[in-house]
Structure formats: structure tokens, C-alpha cells
């Protein structure tokens, strides 16, 4: 069953086609990677899926309904969350508070309850706190819940981003370069965590990633973008041996020296 269907997505910025007629189907319960050289249009494509940009052409269907043109908060409320290439935590809030913020689309108590601090809000806040701690345990950060986010090591900040994304109970999580800047040990741990998102929490995962070892070890399907166009799709075996993919990655460096 397709959870996400992006059909014929095109996005043009001032004459430059950033995404060119890209179609991508994400099955529920899968781990899919979108790869390609720098400037291939990967983050722009994520930005279209999550409502930051509206596609110039094409449609995005999530859970059977069109979401093209919805705002990012509306898409998040429907069950799609993301992390960003550059970490976007609240640095001067605690680890626990950062996860609580991720829950805001799910806290039902209306605004005046927050002003009155009444019992229903306190109950809901207690539940939210319990759930936040459970998510922090899942990513291995519960013992650091009272630390300020800015004081966490880099790999832990990335984990916190994932915990915060999970706070909204997403069906689908988009990870934009989740291991960028990590050392090899942190990358191995991140790989395990991404797999557990799907295996233990039932979340479908789509990632943009440059670490090819990680991509090959974790993805059931890989889509390759180059200059905004999808040039290949398949499992690791298919992608590894695809001449257009090899040219896209190596040709720029190796293919033009005659």
C-alpha cells in the first residue's frame, strides 16, 4: 500500500528547473533513500513533500489524500514529520522541552487552559511528559533530559531531532542527511536507530544521505536524482551497477579528462 505518492513533480526557480518531472512512490513500512550529487534537487524535493514549496506541476498524495499546497503544519498534523540538514533544535531549552515542543500539534487542551493552568491541561501535560521521556529512552537520551540541547554532542543532537519528530506520532519521517558530520561510530549507531524507527515503531522512513555504505545497508529502495531528474531507481544491487548513476557520481570527477 502506497503511503506517499509524488507524481510528476516539477519545481522551477527563476528559469532553473530544480526538480524535473519526478515521480516517487513510498510503500508503507519501507525504508527508502533519495541520493544524488550535490545540487541534484534532493532537499528541494523534500521541501515540496513537506509543504515548504508548492510544486509548479504534479501532485503529492499522502495516505490517499492530496497534500500539495497545504502548509507545513497541516502536513505535519496529518502524520509526516522531518528533520533538517542543519540541526534545528531550540538550543537554550532542555532536551525534554525540545521533545515536548514536537508534540504541540497533538496537545488538545485549548489556549485558555494554558492560561488558567487547569487540571485537564496538567493531566495532559503529565501524559506528554511521560511520552516525551519514553521517546527519549527510545533514542537513548533519557539520562540527559535536563541538559540544554546546545550542550549535547553532535550525534546526540541528531538523535534528539529524531525524538522530536517522533513526538507527533508520524506515519512517515523524512530525514535530511541524518548522519552528516558524524564520526563512523555515531553513523553506525544512527543506522541502528533508523532501522528501529521502522521495526519497533512502525514508521516509514525516507532519507537523503551521502554515506553510501549506510544507504546500501539500510534501504529497500533507492531513487537517484541528478540535475533535478530521477535517473535510476531500484535496490542497492541495481543502483550500484547502473551506468548513469556511476556517471553522475564519478563522471563529473573522472569522465571529463579524456
TrEMBL record:
One GO CC annotation: plasma membrane
Alphabetized InterPro entries for the sequence: AAA+_ATPase, ABC_AA/LPS_Transport, ABC_transporter-like_ATP-bd, BCA_ABC_TP_C, P-loop_NTPase
GO biological process: D-alanine transmembrane transport; L-alanine transport; L-isoleucine import across plasma membrane; L-valine import across plasma membrane
Keyword Manganese attached: no
GO terms of molecular function: ATP binding; ATP hydrolysis activity; L-isoleucine transmembrane transporter activity; L-phenylalanine transmembrane transporter activity; L-valine transmembrane transporter activity
SUPFAM superfamilies: P-loop containing nucleoside triphosphate hydrolases
Coiled coil: none
Keyword set includes Transmembrane: no
Keywords: ATP-binding, Nucleotide-binding, Transport
Domain ABC transporter: 4-252
Name the record gives this protein: ABC transporter related protein
Source organism of the structure: Oscillochloris trichoides DG-6
Lineage per the UniProt record: Bacteria, Bacillati, Chloroflexota, Chloroflexia, Chloroflexales
Amino acid at each position: 500500500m502506497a503511503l506517499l505518492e509524488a507524481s510528476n513533480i516539477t519545481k522551477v526557480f527563476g528559469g532553473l528547473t530544480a526538480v524535473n518531472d519526478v515521480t516517487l512512490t513510498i510503500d508503507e513500512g519501507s525504508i527508502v533513500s533519495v541520493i544524488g550529487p550535490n545540487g541534484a534537487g534532493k532537499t528541494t524535493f523534500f521541501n515540496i513533500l513537506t509543504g515548504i514549496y508548492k510544486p509548479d506541476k504534479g501532485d503529492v498524495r499522502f495516505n490517499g489524500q492530496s497534500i500539495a499546497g497545504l502548509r507545513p503544519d497541516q502536513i505535519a498534523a496529518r502524520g509526516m514529520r522531518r528533520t533538517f540538514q542543519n540541526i534545528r533544535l531550540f538550543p537554550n531549552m532542555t532536551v525534554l522541552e525540545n521533545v515536548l515542543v514536537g508534540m504541540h500539534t497533538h496537545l488538545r487542551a485549548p489556549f485558555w487552559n494554558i492560561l488558567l493552568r487547569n487540571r485537564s491541561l496538567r493531566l495532559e501535560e503529565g501524559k506528554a511528559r511521560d511520552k516525551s521521556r519514553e521517546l527519549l529512552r527510545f533514542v537513548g537520551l533519557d539520562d540527559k533530559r535536563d541538559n540544554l540541547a546546545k550542550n549535547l554532542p553532535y550525534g546526540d543532537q541528531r538523535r534528539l531531532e529524531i525524538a522530536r519528530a517522533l513526538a507527533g506520532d508520524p506515519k512517515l519521517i523524512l530525514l535530511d542527511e541524518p548522519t552528516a558530520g558524524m564520526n563512523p561510530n555515531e553513523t553506525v549507531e544512527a543506522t541502528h536507530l533508523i532501522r528501529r524507527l521502522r521495526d519497533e515503531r512502525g514508521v516509514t522512513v525516507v532519507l537523503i544521505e551521502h554515506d553510501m555504505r549506510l544507504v546500501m545497508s539500510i534501504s529497500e529502495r533507492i531513487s537517484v536524482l541528478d540535475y533535478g531528474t530521477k535517473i535510476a531507481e531500484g535496490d542497492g544491487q541495481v543502483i550500484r551497477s547502473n551506468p548513469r548513476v556511476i556517471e553522475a557520481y564519478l563522471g563529473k570527477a573522472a569522465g571529463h579528462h579524456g
